[in-house]
Amino acid sequence: MRPKVITFDCAGTLIDVQWDPARLALETAESMGFELDTATASETYRRMLGARWPHFRELNLQRSEAVCDAFWREMTDDWCSAVGIPTSASAELLDHANARLFGPEADLMRPFDDAEPALIVLREAGYRLAVISNWDVSLHKALRRFGLAPYFELAIASLEEGVEKPEATLFHLTLDRLGALPEEALHVGDDPVDDLTGARNAGMRGRLIDRTRADSESPFLARLTDLPAMLG
Ligand SMILES: [Mg+2]
Fold it and tell me: CB of 87 within 8 A of CB of 44?
């Protein structure tokens, strides 16, 4: 049966993400002329963020970009203090770091070349599209930034829901909001467990995107643009 709904993972599937928060903070500080002990500053960042992660998860349940932006401001302020950067430079540091993720010249996130062309064809063919991603509230910002948001009826970020792939609950709540049944849906992602096993356990079909492959033989997809022709 031809699916009615196609859901996509985001990182590694639609958008190539090379974000390491500690490395980004360190590189940004260095680009602003601050000389830091790399190992110590990096370790400090990881430790501080690790300790705050449960709090960040809680904040995401509020589904507010402003609330989570405030978290990163505080995190950056406190890291600056801890490694000897004047906190007066903290806001600029965070702006520079955010620019590498979401700015016009973003180099740590970029959509894969096959993503938008595939979405255009699928939308024109009448499929309902959604995103199911293990991501924080900034998923929406990323989809908007790269012009992908308009293709989707719904984008579900796991941290906003308090449940992650591969748990079936995340797939099911997405389908519930779309008013669709698992057997009417196909999920596409790059993680064999989170995306393929997760989708199948939720009663959906699954496809695994692997751009290193020469061709798209089920359950693999070598390119997202191969998907429309494989749907029958
Ligand atoms: Mg992924």
Answer: no
Query: At which residue do the structure tokens 């492959």 appear?
Result: 213
Model pTM score? 0.95
Q: Which residues surround ligand 1, an ion (CB under 5 A)?
A: 9, 11-12, 190
Give 20-72 pLDDT, tens digit per residue.
Answer: 999 999 999 999 999 999 999 999 999 999 999 999 999 999 999 999 999 99
φ, ψ for residue 86, nearest 5 deg? -60, 135
Ligand 1 geometric centre to CA of 70 (Å): 26
Expressed in angstroms and rounded, the spacing between residue 11 Cα and the centre of ligand 1 is 4
pLDDT digits (tens, 9 = 90+) for 31-45: 999 999 999 999 999
Superfamily designation of domain 5-17+109-230? HAD superfamily/HAD-like (3.40.50.1000)
